[in-house]
Design goal:
With 285 residues, the chain is α+β, with helices and mostly antiparallel strands. The protein has two domains: 54 residues; 218 residues, no CATH class. 43% of the residues lie in helices and 27% in strands. It has an eight-stranded antiparallel β-sheet, sandwiched between helices. Helix 5 packs antiparallel against helix 6. The termini are far apart.
Length: 285
């Protein structure tokens, strides 16, 4: 083989090697592109799954606000039966009673873990609302009630109770030794009226049925909560003066671990909020 032939052969070998390198680079680029597309696609399609584990979800309305519509629109000393009935007769409730003095409705979740009821008591002479109640208990709360974007890793329990009542003239004129004693006396009256109204409602609904049993459970849970609250206040009466604070008074609960209560007196009305379990977060809202 002469010099020219060797040179030509080496040239062809170099060209072949250069083509191999270019082909290798092309394959690397193609693989990198495919990997990039995969990562982007996984990020777009899998972000909802990942965000669930991180505790992030699309924001939804605050936990019990969607059920509180009738309670919020009922005005003490103003609303009459004809005002309240249409609000309670909604798809979220099953109508329980339409007596002379008590109107109520109850609702339950599909799987039975959540129960709520609304009840309004009317003055037998003026026919206007004098007490109103909202109650909700949920055994499996999956989202934070104050930040619905956050999803709990394990379901939690919670209870919410709202009550507003018109104070009688006798109670308004009553004199007490201390502010705390006045707060405790009013709270005891709220508890007494609640038991009376639930008992009357139970008689209208009748015993033995599913609604009657659900109402009984609600009543037992509320009695247990009030008993715990009264024990806490009687053990430390000074706490009663903090009921009007934004955060209310905290207490321990045997079934829900923690609880909180707030009571605000405004003129001739008293408003009480009780929260247990994970719903304690909503007390100051």
């Amino acid at each position: 083989m002469n010099y020219k032939q060797q040179t030509a052969l080496q040239g062809r070998s170099a060209m072949g090697a250069g083509a191999g390198i270019k082909e290798g680079k092309s394959q690397v680029k193609s693989f990198a592109l495919l990997l990039f597309v995969f990562v982007i696609s996984w990020g777009l399609c899998g972000c909802s799954t990942v965000s669930t584990y991180l505790g992030l979800q699309k924001e939804e309305p605050a936990y019990e606000e969607q059920l509180l519509a009738a309670y919020n629109r009922t005005k003490l000393n103003k609303s009459i039966t004809l005002d309240v009935l249409p609000m309670l007769q909604s798809s979220k409730h099953e109508f329980l009673s339409q007596g002379d003095s008590v109107v109520a409705a109850l609702g339950q979740g599909k799987e039975g873990y959540k129960t709520w009821f609304e009840m309004v008591t009317f003055d037998e002479y003026k026919l206007t609302a004098k007490r109103k109640y909202f109650f909700l208990v949920d055994e499996k709360i999956t989202r934070s009630p104050t930040n619905p974007r956050y999803v709990f890793f394990a379901p939690r329990r919670g209870l919410a109770f709202d009550c507003e009542m018109a104070l009688s003239k006798q109670m308004r004129d009553e004199s007490y030794e201390t502010e705390g004693a006045a707060q405790i006396a009013i709270l005891k009256q709220v508890w007494k009226d609640l038991r009376k109204d639930i008992d009357e409602l139970g008689q209208d609904v009748g015993g033995g049925g599913q609604n009657s049993k659900a109402l009984d459970i609600c009543g037992l849970l509320l009695n247990q909560a009030f008993e715990t609250i009264m024990l806490t206040l009687e053990t430390s009466p000074v706490l009663a003066t903090k009921l009007i604070d934004k955060g209310g008074v905290e207490f321990e609960h045997i079934n829900f671990d923690k609880g909180g209560i707030q009571m605000v007196i405004d003129g001739d009305t008293a408003a009480v909020k009780i929260r247990l379990g994970v719903l304690v977060e909503t007390l100051s809202r």
